[in-house]
Specification:
Helix 7 crosses helix 8, helix 26 packs across helix 27 and helix 29 packs across helix 37. Helices cover 55% and strands 12% of the residues. The radius of gyration is 34 Å and the shape is globular. Strand 6, helix 21 and strand 7 form a beta-alpha-beta unit. By secondary structure, the chain is α/β, with parallel strands linked by helices. The protein folds into 4 domains: 239 residues, MetI-like fold, CATH 1.10.3720; 250 residues, D-Maltodextrin-Binding Protein, domain 2; 142 residues, Periplasmic binding protein-like II (D-Maltodextrin-Binding Protein, domain 2, 3-Layer(aba) Sandwich); 99 residues, D-Maltodextrin-Binding Protein, domain 2 (3-Layer(aba) Sandwich). It holds the Pfam family BPD_transp_1. One of its GO terms (molecular function) is carnitine transmembrane transporter activity.
């Protein structure tokens, strides 16, 4: 029978819909995203314990005192494990999807209950919607709506709609036919019969359907996380991907708490809205024992309102569960608790530089206090001595009047950024527009508008009065007035769709870090010359705080550093500026010591300080660990290394062409021999730094009488007849199945389970914790030998083959290009114990925190930096 090309037809249909109905999908996306954003803002706005109290009060009103207490404790637990924001994201997603589902499901159920033909048509459709794997809906969802909340909501709506339709239809059909006939006999209009008779009597069943809709919607949070939606789904999916038990349990328990709350509340809501349920509730109360009446008592609306006010007052002073601010780590107590008052203007660069110095000063033992002011108040406060310093004076032009008025009472600590500039910017994908002159003939491309900011801003006045007339843009362009936030929102939307857009911008600004933009040149100088950004202080500050003043005087950031700092703070969100700074400092290790060096404690600089070697690495444990180790060491020596991940083939190709300078994970002479033979004319072997790698099977040390591969024979029952393997396509697995097991006669006793390295390690961890025998595929070096006591089974027949060494390989020009670094690498060597402990430190730090893990390892190995990279005094 010929194959039916059903999949191709569906694919063609999806493509046609995407190409011809994009306007509809854009509209749906806008509506759904708007609903989610609005609801998420409402849910995330209150303090966590305050909102937990409100939810508990709702539970008290609906179900009673005990459920209210349990609800409060459950939500307090979510806050205590720092998943409140994610839980509110999830709740918003579930409620949006639930509302949309109910809006469509109930009318469809009513229609089906009143029309047999409609019911017959809808039933197989509902079967299809409910039985089709929900993951499948993500594919067209991503096609139509992209990544994020919207495809997750769409998949959730489709998956959760069937019970809503079915239960509505069932409830109405179950209403006593004699009651309907009686209503008809008295001449009641069918619509009034539906609203006054059928729906009230069917309400318990309909509400049961609503409950199921909510529960099914909540079950889809992991699906939503897979397509980039915020919330607990993202947490759970990340935990699954990384086999992170702790993260998975915390995310799962938060989902369970939400599920139990929504289930109980939607069930109890039926008792409040259904006449039959209210009657049953009254009977239940009448039968309650006198001693338990307090547990069944439910407050009136007025009492509930009083409770909300009281909870608001109490929750405002409570902080027992939650502040996700880690707090500063004092690395050198230079300040000894001295207070420093820092003022700032609420501009991006002012916020960024101020919170950067707040973090640095806290790390140095000071107690800085930061406060936002307008420009006049800021200068007045410094002049009066109430503010010690600020970092955002635009001189000599923008703040000239303030400087002229107060300069006798101020100190200029120097410029840390410059020159600034005002400009019009366009996305880099817009071709043929490099200057303001180029805009004149391109008005149609940009829909005859330049998106501006606040109408009272100096740049807007300059645009209207000088720039647009100077370039003839006032004839073909209109300057859209609005706000900075609106301009950035429009830029983001257009950039996402690759649409041409021209916006008013200025440098420095974090948008240049987030987007690839072209600053349009101003050959006529209509915007004028740029300012510097200076740090100013009150008179006498340098005398009172010589160390801080010295740091500020030497403070410098380039455009890339400043815009990336601003971007990190933007990503952290409002109220979490210092967390954004900490994230940026983690991405720029050594920057804290560079900006605020501790007297007598600065790292020595190498002879080639400032050099920027490109280091490549594979996503292998030993390579990740050593690459980040050398990155840390080189930055301490004043280098500016760049690191990038490659696969094996790309790495060797990149080194041979000079795109990669060096890498530390060359397995020679066996494993990577084919690549070395192919490219060795353009490469150099700097030397081996780790001897005798090996492939092996390992067992826990508490497993006795198993010391070699030969000892495994006859002991299959001890290990349940299996050896826990890794990815089936790896060379070690192929060698094990094809040669090693046969060589030792184990192929008939044992089965090698295919899986993944994380799964193998998870099984090892589980068995080790229970002291159960387990045999796993491993290799040396590996951090597992540092974490667990394991026995490497010897291989007397050499079935796994000859061992490799780990070599540092580089482009042929590397020794001449970086002679000092090359000399360090030639003498570098690591023992198995050192490498395993380094890998373990990186593992413990977690994904994305490799630099933190390396730093912890360096701290535990004093003198290691000088040993690896000695600098002659």
């Amino acid at each position: 029978m010929p194959r039916l090309q059903l999949g191709d037809w569906i694919n063609s249909g999806v493509n046609w819909l995407r190409d011809n109905l994009s306007w509809l999908f854009d509209f749906i996306s806008s509506v759904v995203q708007g609903m989610y954003d609005g609801l998420n803002t409402v849910l995330s706005g209150p303090e966590p314990l305050l909102f937990a109290g409100i939810l508990a009060l709702l539970a008290w009103w609906l179900r009673g005192l005990l459920p209210a207490v349990l609800a409060f404790l459950g939500f307090a637990l979510i806050d205590s494990i720092e998943l409140w924001g994610e839980a509110m994201n999830t709740l918003a997603l579930v409620l949006v999807a639930g509302v949309i589902t109910i809006v469509f499901a109930v009318p469809l159920g009513i229609w089906a209950s009143r029309n047999r033909a409609v019911s017959a048509v809808i039933r197989p459709v509902l079967d299809f919607m409910q039985t089709m794997p929900a993951f499948v809906y993500l594919i067209p969802g991503i096609f139509f709506f992209g990544l994020g909340v919207v495809p997750g909501v769409v998949a959730t709506v489709i998956f959760s709609m069937p019970p809503g339709v079915r239960m509505t239809e069932l409830g109405i059909r179950q209403v006593d036919a004699e009651l309907v006939e009686a209503a008809d006999a008295f001449g009641t209009h069918p619509r009034r019969t539906l609203l006054r008779v059928q729906l009230p009597l069917a309400l318990p069943t309909i509400m049961a359907g609503v409950n199921q809709v909510i529960m099914l919607a909540l079950s889809m949070v992991v699906i939503a996380g897979m397509v980039g939606a915020e919330g607990l789904g993202s947490t759970v999916f990340q935990a699954i991907s990384s086999v992170d038990v702790a993260m998975g349990f915390e995310g799962g328990i938060a989902v369970v708490i939400l599920a139990m709350y929504l289930d109980r509340m939607t069930s109890a809501l039926n008792q409040r809205v259904s006449p039959l349920a209210r009657r049953a509730l009254a009977k239940e109360k009448a039968k309650s024992l006198s001693g338990l009446k307090v547990l069944h008592w439910r407050p009136a609306t007025s009492v509930a309102m009083v409770g909300v006010v009281v909870l608001a007052l109490v929750a405002g002073g409570m902080s027992i569960f939650g502040d996700d601010d880690e707090g500063p780590t004092v690395s050198a107590n230079v300040g000894k608790g001295q207070s420093v008052n820092i003022g700032y203007i609420n501009w991006d660069e002012g916020v960024a530089s101020t919170f950067l110095w707040k973090e640095l000063l806290e790390q140095r033992g000071f107690k800085p206090k930061v406060q936002s002011y307008d420009v006049g108040a800021l200068y007045t406060g410094m002049a009066s001595g109430n503010i010690d310093f600020e970092t955002d004076s635009w001189l000599p032009t923008t703040h000239a009047s303030y400087w002229s008025k107060y300069k006798s009472k101020l100190e200029n600590l120097g410029s840390w950024y410059g020159p600034t500039s005002l400009e019009v910017a366009v996305p880099s994908y817009v071709k043929g527009v490099k200057t303001l002159e180029d805009l004149e003939q391109k008005s149609g491309t940009f829909k005859k508008k330049i998106v501006g900011i606040e109408p009272g801003a100096g740049e807007m006045k300059l645009m209207q009065d000088k720039v647009m007339p100077g370039y003839g843009l006032n004839k073909n362009f209109s300057l859209v007035k609005g706000s900075t936030a609106a301009m950035l929102s429009q830029l983001d939307r257009s950039y996402a769709k690759k649409e041409p857009i021209a916006v008013t911008l200025w440098s420095p600004h974090w948008a240049y870090d987030k987007y690839k933009l072209t600053k349009l040149k101003d050959p006529k100088g209509a915007f004028g010359k740029g300012d510097r950004i200076d740090s100013l202080a009150r008179k006498g500050f340098s005398k009172d705080n010589p160390q801080v003043a010295k740091w500020i005087k030497n403070f410098k950031l380039d455009e890339k550093q400043l815009t990336s700092l601003e971007s990190a703070i933007q990503d952290a969100g409002k109220g979490k500026e210092q967390q954004g700074v900490r994230a940026w400092l983690k991405q720029n290790p050594g920057m804290a010591n560079k900006l605020a060096p501790v007297p007598g404690g600065a790292d020595q600089k190498g002879k080639e300080a400032g050099a920027a070697p490109m280091i490549g690495y594979f996503p292998w444990d030993e390579d990740i660990a050593t690459t980040y180790l050398w990155k840390n060491v080189l930055e301490r020596r004043g280098y500016k290394p760049e690191i990038k991940q490659y696969d094996v083939g790309s790495m060797f190709t990149g080194m041979s062409t000079g795109q990669v300078d060096v890498e530390f994970d060359g397995w020679l002479p066996v494993a990577q021999k084919q690549y070395w033979d192919k490219y060795k004319k353009n490469l150099v072997d700097v030397g081996s730094w780790y001897d005798k790698t090996s492939l092996e099977i390992a067992v826990p040390s508490y497993v006795k009488d198993v010391k070699s591969l030969a000892d495994l024979k006859g002991k299959a029952s001890t290990f349940d007849g299996k050896i826990v393997g890794i990815e089936p396509g790896t060379g070690e697995m192929k060698l094990l199945k094809g040669k090693v097991l046969k060589e030792y006669g184990l192929d008939k006793e044992y089965k090698v389970s295919d899986g993944s390295s994380p799964a193998m390690l998870a099984e090892l961890d589980r068995s080790y914790a229970k002291k159960e025998p387990v045999a796993v595929v491993l290799w040396t070096p590996h951090w597992a030998y540092s974490k667990y006591k394991l026995t490497k089974l010897s291989d007397p027949k050499k079935a796994f083959g000859a061992s490799n060494q780990l070599h540092t390989l580089a482009n042929k020009s590397f020794p001449k290009k970086f002679p000092e670094f090359n000399g360090w690498l030639k003498k570098w060597h690591m023992t198995e114990k050192d490498l395993a402990s380094l890998e373990q430190a990186v593992q413990d730090a977690g994904k994305g925190n490799e630099e933190k893990g390396v730093q912890k390892w360096i701290d535990a190995h004093p003198g290691i930096v000088d040993k690896m990279a000695p600098v002659a005094s």
